[in-house]
Amino acid sequence: MTDHTNADTLRTPIVAVLGHVDHGKTSLLDTIRGSAVSEGEAGAITQHIGATDIPLDTISEMAGELIDPSDFDLPGLLFIDTPGHHSFSTLRARGGALADIAVLVVDVNDGFQPQTEEAIDILRRTGTPFVVAANKVDTTPGWNPQDGQPIQRSLEAQSERAESMLNENLYEIIGQLSDAGFSADLYWRVQDFQKNIGVVPLSALTGEGVPDLLTVLMGLSQRFMKEEMAIDVQGAGEGTVLEVKDERGFGATIDTVVYDGVIRNGDTIVVGGQNEPIVTEVRALLRPRALEEIRTEKKFEKVAEIGAAAGVKIAAPELDQAMAGAPVRVVRDRPLEDVIAEVKAELAEIEVDTAEDGVVVKADTLGSLEAMANALREAEVPILRAEVGDIAPRDIAVAETANQDEHKAILGFNVDLLANAESELENADMKLFTDEVIYQLIEDYETYVEERERAQQETVLDKVVRPSRFRILPDHTFRQNDPAVVGVEVISGTLQNNRNVGLFEGNEFERVGQLSGIQKQGDDVDEARAGERVSIAIDGPTVGRGIEEGDTLWTEVPEKHAKILEQELKEEITADEREALAAYLETKRKRDPFWGK
């Protein structure tokens, strides 16, 4: 048994930085990287693919008096650049989140935004410990910047007014965290980081507060994650795919974060693929060349092996079907079947429930696919097919096969439309929705469905016979027959032209004729509403035989129409039309209780 207190067996904690698009994630990473490069010898910072490794010595240089390196036996911090700018969605490591710890960047002036909420959601679901970086403190009116200083040192240099304005914004964020179910406070007031979230005010631009952030991250990792950082240094490597990329001279490669063991050149590896796990052999492990050599032609240098925690580009045959977010496993001295089964089992955890009919979903990583599936389940939108990757012609073909028209749709999260799919989309009988915020994507789709339904109801409503009850006024017979022309008052409902009309003899409805004209103050109109007095022409009856002055007549509503009005369009018609319908149905149902049901 190896002695786990030995620093060699403790790996670097993996830190993910997430937050809303323009709240400063990238600039914060750049600042940390930049100051790390200027503090350490450039050579001390190993360049990684998709990650930046900052050794403990460099952190302690940057943090100054805040850190005593002898308190730590973790080797430093590995910041991963999450794929795209998307809020780091559940990239996994053995069923948990890939990141050991996260930084949630929030613009101190802007507070929580949609993607902040999404990020918090993911952190809550995966149980990832996190720290909040309240960025852009330097934009506080009247701020006096103290470049690179610890935040409390910087606060001493501010006017009371600037400090109180900043505090107001900070307490706003602490309040928003509390609404999201997290108890939080400024980090120097937090006693127990397992119960409370530390908020670190900082500026990515001036670097003030960055020492504090590094200190808090180191402290949290050392204190609460030491056990998890213990790894088998020479064990079979395990990692997670960040991105699949084509590289000249290498074909499809996978940018991978290795979180356990070692991957060596020539190792047989199993990688999660779109259909089946891919079994292949490592041809090259690539790292970016050191900064001073970047001028040479080749971007990458080959290394013989890579140990956790690290970012590396793996070149191997047949990786074009690999998926972002999928597991990477070195086989080494285990039966291949076992490793394949393990990768399958891990992918099965992320299987999306699909239905016979539903929408097509495409997302950039397995994690975001899972987040999309969860959100759609809550919105009760069924999924026909869900896959990682850009939108291809076959996705359009699949979407068109949906049974219900509103399901003929593709919801694409953080993905592109492949060039060869563009022309197909133009002629396709389906809708494409894309967005970089999950809930926005779903909201756009739901709005589309609602508008469709409304339009359909309006079309149906145009075709449906509206109910009406009207009375022939005494002394208002203008013509006895061919057609009979009489003055009427509409009691309830809408009297439409060209409809059959009749009256009830007991519970029997008797058709008397058809309307062939409605005139209102001498003008021809298509309909008359409740309360209006109009003259109407009726083909069929003779006044005095069949109809009399003072009679109450009804528009004859066909049974099918009555059913649609009562069951589907009740909310769409007016109160007096509902009243006319109810009275009509009541009389009809006295004779046949199931009429119109």
TrEMBL record:
InterPro entries (UniProt xref): EFTu-like_2, EFTU-type, P-loop_NTPase, Small_GTP-bd, T_Tr_GTP-bd_dom, TF_aIF-2_arc, TIF_IF2, TIF_IF2_dom3
All copies of domain Tr-type G, residue ranges: 10-226
SUPFAM superfamilies per record: Initiation factor IF2/eIF5b, domain 3, P-loop containing nucleoside triphosphate hydrolases, Translation proteins
Binding-site list for GTP: 19-26, 81-85, 135-138
MF terms in GO: GTP binding; GTPase activity; translation initiation factor activity
Keywords for the protein's UniProt record, in alphabetical order: GTP-binding, Initiation factor, Nucleotide-binding, Protein biosynthesis
Entries under PROSITE patterns matching the protein: G_TR_2 (PS51722)
Pfam families the record matches: GTP_EFTU (PF00009), GTP_EFTU_D2 (PF03144), GTP_EFTU_D4 (PF14578), IF-2 (PF11987)
Superkingdom in the source lineage: Archaea
Family statement drawn from the similarity comment of this UniProt entry: Belongs to the TRAFAC class translation factor GTPase superfamily. Classic translation factor GTPase family. IF-2 subfamily.
Function: Function in general translation initiation by promoting the binding of the formylmethionine-tRNA to ribosomes. Seems to function along with eIF-2.
Cross-referenced HAMAP family: IF_2_A (MF_00100_A)
Protein name, UniProt field: Probable translation initiation factor IF-2
Native source organism of the sequence: Halorubrum pallidum
